[in-house]
Design brief:
mainly alpha
Length: 318
């Protein structure tokens, strides 16, 4: 005769009680975590209270609470989508970020692989420092460098073109050159800095794998293909998912500095429009609605790309 085991009738303690016990048990760790929690609370979550002005006719004199709700509540969203240049701004912003992702995403991965192949420690350190430095150049200085180097009269690029028998090009006044200059300068400035995560991944690989591959007669290219790349794929996929979440968010400061009357057809992105309308014309509710709309779309893109990645490669953020 089998005796069925007794069922555990004891219920789990409430979540609040378990949380309190966990805090009491590991209070030292919570103390270390407290500054980060406070930072995100005050600078990331508390400002979300102001998102409601996207649904109000905000007046600074009345404040957020005193301002009246828009009638209808989606009035500012409808105004933006019905604006004349809405389609052009969406296309310019999306294409600028899409081309930047296609061109700029593989470069840090290739640089990290090349740096990992360097065996001379001093030269490797010098190379890493050299490619990190452009990241610390301010946007204003970078824009000034672009204007200086690509000047039609005294720029070094046009001097080289004329030396080979060509004619000077007005890079800053031709709309077709805005995206190449914007994306190329961004890759030059940030590619080296973005290699940090990939280099950290490569340095964590067990050296015995390389030794075993060398003993088996694997060439350097084969070691990269069968050891480096498989270890880089998971972090590359996760970074790609995160980067896809900013396809409608561009460097507004840089675009504003590089925008001229000649290239406005391609440089007229949503960020510049929000800056000119929100700061210049004090239409805070209208521009807040635009920003909220873009954030919702970017969030939806992250969810979509993450879902596709989980089904295709079983790698995802969540």
């Amino acid at each position: 005769m089998q005796v069925s085991p007794k069922k555990n009738t004891r219920s789990k303690p409430p979540l609040a009680t378990r949380f309190a016990k966990a805090v009491y048990r590991d209070w030292q760790l919570w103390v270390f975590l407290l500054p980060a929690l406070l930072f995100f609370l005050f600078f990331c979550y508390f400002p979300m209270y102001g998102v409601q002005i996207a649904f109000k006719d905000y007046k600074a004199a009345f404040g957020i609470i005193g301002s009246k709700w828009a009638n209808p509540w989606f009035k500012h969203f409808r105004t933006f989508f019905n604006s004349f240049y809405c389609g052009r701004m969406f296309a310019n912003t999306f294409l600028l970020n899409l081309y930047g992702l296609l061109v700029g995403f593989p470069v840090p991965v290739l640089l990290a692989i090349l740096l990992n192949q360097l065996t001379h420690k001093r030269f490797k350190g010098f190379a890493q420092t050299a490619i990190y430095v452009p990241h610390f150049i301010s946007t204003v200085v970078l824009a000034g460098m672009i204007y200086l180097f690509f000047s039609p009269s005294s720029g070094i690029v046009n001097k080289a073109i004329e030396a080979f028998g060509g004619k000077a090009i007005y890079f800053m006044l031709e709309e077709k050159w805005f995206r190449p200059l914007f994306i190329g300068s961004d890759v030059w400035q940030n590619a080296g800095w973005n290699t940090i995560l990939y280099i950290a991944t490569l340095t964590s690989i067990d050296p015995q794998l390389y030794e075993a591959a060398t003993i088996d007669g694997a060439s350097r290219f084969q070691r990269i293909r069968h050891i480096d790349l498989p270890h880089l794929i998971p972090i590359c996929v996760m970074m790609l998912i995160l980067n896809c979440g900013s396809l409608l968010s561009s460097d507004t400061n840089k675009a504003l500095l590089l925008q001229t009357s000649g290239n406005i057809k391609t440089s007229d992105i949503i960020g510049v429009y929000v800056y000119n309308t929100g700061i210049g014309k004090a239409q805070y509710s209208y521009t807040s609605a635009i920003g909220l709309c873009l954030n919702v779309i970017n969030f939806a893109i992250i969810i979509l790309v993450n879902t596709i990645s989980r089904k295709v490669s079983e790698i995802s953020l969540f």
